[in-house]
Design brief:
alpha/beta, eight-stranded mixed sheet
């Protein structure tokens, strides 16, 4: 089975050769071709719920293999640094890093955006768009033969439920957490999206998101990310991070999810023949472009990790929140 999916083979090779500090859990076994494929979650760092955490997720959409690959590349980097890098050892004493590199193994093995049941996992949560979802792309229950199918209304898919349970147990028990979910396929510029996708209403932690953006742009002024609410582009039903963000509000924990949307149109512009491949719109086919993408986002991952560990030093106080909220509204929600 793993021969059909190089990313799963790579992940299992990492697990087999990793040091004892890397903890591995199988969240579920996903049916595929009369067999099952494991859905792995990995953890590195302090398990205490008193410490902050960051989660790196990839492979939610099976066509977007590069999302899984950038998470695996960062995991490999950390494991190589761990024996000698004192600063990393200190960081891991103060926080935990969770990895779910391949949430949708059956979909990736099939070469589908959806999972093995033809359900789009990012349209699968019990969340209804309140401001007018985009037709079809915003999620539909017309037919599983059409893309963006939401699945059954009365239950989550196995992969979605596994993610919800894991985030609830591992992140929403902690005082602070960040999430970076890695995707590709939207536009020419790499984007960092935050909730909501269900409405144009600003999230309660708008000031905190704006402050995080400030830090990123101040520390790395030559980076090329757009940092914005997803609702500026389209609205949809069933967004998993909308659902989990709202759950964090119920749990009274601060979790700030972000989606990295890698701008795959650049890869197509430089190599139009990619359009002849089913993966061409979502994956850089040329090996040198794959390598470039894998190293491009390492700075972002390190920034997110350091922001997690040092969250108490940059989260705004009550007075600062009012100013940041005003600036954020002027930037993202004018009028």
């Amino acid at each position: 089975m793993q021969d059909l999916l190089p990313e799963l083979s790579q992940l299992e090779q990492i697990i087999a050769t990793a040091p004892a500090e890397l903890r591995c859990t199988v969240l579920a076994n996903i049916p595929h071709m009369a067999q099952t494929m494991p859905l792995y979650a990995l953890a590195l760092g302090n398990e205490s719920p008193a410490t902050p955490a960051i989660a790196l997720v990839g492979g939610v959409h099976g066509l977007e293999r590069i999302g899984t690959q950038v998470v695996l590349a960062y995991l490999q980097t950390l494991l190589q640094r761990l024996p000698w890098d004192y600063s990393l050892q200190q960081v891991l004493e103060q926080c935990c890093i969770y990895f779910i590199p391949l949430l949708n193994p059956a979909g990736m093995a099939n070469g589908w955006r959806a999972n093995g049941n033809s359900v789009d996992l990012m349209r699968n949560a019990p969340v209804e768009c309140t401001d007018g979802a985009a037709w079809l792309v915003g999620g539909q229950r017309i037919s599983r033969a059409l893309p963006w199918h939401r699945g059954r209304a009365d239950r989550l898919e196995i992969e979605s439920q596994a993610l919800v349970n894991y985030v609830d147990q591992q992140l929403l028990t902690r005082p602070f957490s960040l999430v970076l979910d890695c995707h590709s396929g939207f536009g020419k510029i790499d984007r960092l999206w935050f909730p909501y996708a269900k409405c144009r209403q600003p999230v309660p932690h708008l000031a905190q998101y704006y402050r995080l953006r400030q830090l990123l742009f101040q520390c790395y002024p030559h980076q090329n990310y757009l940092f914005e609410p997803q609702s500026q582009h389209y609205l949809c039903h069933g967004d998993l991070w909308d659902y989990l963000y709202d759950l964090s509000l119920v749990r009274q924990r601060m979790m700030l999810p972000l989606t990295l949307e890698m701008g795959s149109w650049n890869w197509v512009r430089k190599n139009p023949f990619q359009l002849l491949s089913s993966l061409g719109m979502f994956h850089p086919v040329k090996p040198h472009r794959v390598r470039r993408v894998l190293r491009t986002h390492l700075i972002l991952f390190d920034f997110m990790l350091n922001a997690t560990v040092s969250h108490r030093h940059w989260l705004p106080d009550t007075a600062g929140q009012a100013v940041l909220q005003q600036d954020a509204r002027a930037l993202w929600y004018p009028g």
